[in-house]
Write a structure and sequence with these properties.
Elements (H helix, E strand, L loop, with lengths): L1 H7 L23 H12 L7 H11 E5 L2 E4 L7
Antiparallel strand pairs: 1-2
Length: about 80
């Protein structure tokens, strides 16, 4: 996981917290600006991931689309 966070430059890249929840308000932090840049790079697949993986990520955050664009959000974890 750490190598992927480094490859995509995800925020502070710190996954030192509990492995099952490091991304839920724990050690891993990302600013809003960093997140927008990351999503733009992900959307354009600037990381050279497989198209199937990029498609899966896009589908997981997609809410709705219109002629004006698409709306996406980070899914909330199951509680």
């Amino acid at each position: 996981m750490n190598s992927y966070f480094q490859q995509i430059g995800y925020g502070n890249e710190n996954i030192s917290g509990d492995f099952s929840s490091y991304w839920m308000q724990s050690s891993l932090k990302i600013s809003p600006v960093e997140q927008v840049e990351l999503l733009k790079n992900l959307y354009r697949n600037n990381f050279n991931f497989t198209p199937a993986n990029i498609h899966a990520v896009k589908n997981s955050i997609h809410l709705t689309a219109s002629e004006n664009g698409e709306f996406m959000e980070k899914p909330e974890p199951d509680e």
